[in-house]
Design brief:
Blueprint (H helix, E strand, L loop, with lengths): L1 E2 L4 H11 L1 H4 L4 E8 L7 E7 L2 H8 L2 H10 L3 E3 L24
Antiparallel strand pairs: 1-4, 2-3
Length: 101
């Protein structure tokens, strides 16, 4: 999502303020907001769902329409891609540390 230049802080605050419209949905596993290091007005949003059918149901809900209305004035452009996690490899920093003793 590209945000109108100069409105990045407003976008980030709005995204946090209205995020529960997504994360409170029973099929939502979580969301992440990522700002591009190369293009400060560009953001990536990752949203994880139990399954695609429930995500698609959410997309057409009143809850999602209200969420979009709040973000739309801040957006210059956007696109969406969906996918499925095939494999997850945990990194060394995410592994539990053995107890001393």
């Amino acid at each position: 999502m590209r945000i109108h230049p100069g409105r990045e802080a407003e976008f980030e605050q709005t995204w946090l303020r209205i995020g529960d419209a997504v994360t409170s949905h029973p099929a939502n596993l979580g969301q992440w907001l990522i700002r591009s290091e190369d293009e400060p007005s560009t953001y990536f949003i990752t949203s994880d769902w139990v399954d695609e059918a429930q995500f698609r149901e959410f997309e057409t809900s009143e809850r999602h329409l209200e969420h979009r209305k709040a973000l739309h004035p801040l957006r210059a452009s956007g696109s969406m891609a969906t996918g499925s996690v095939l494999t997850h490899l945990a990194g060394a920093a995410s592994l539990p540390v053995p107890a001393a003793g």
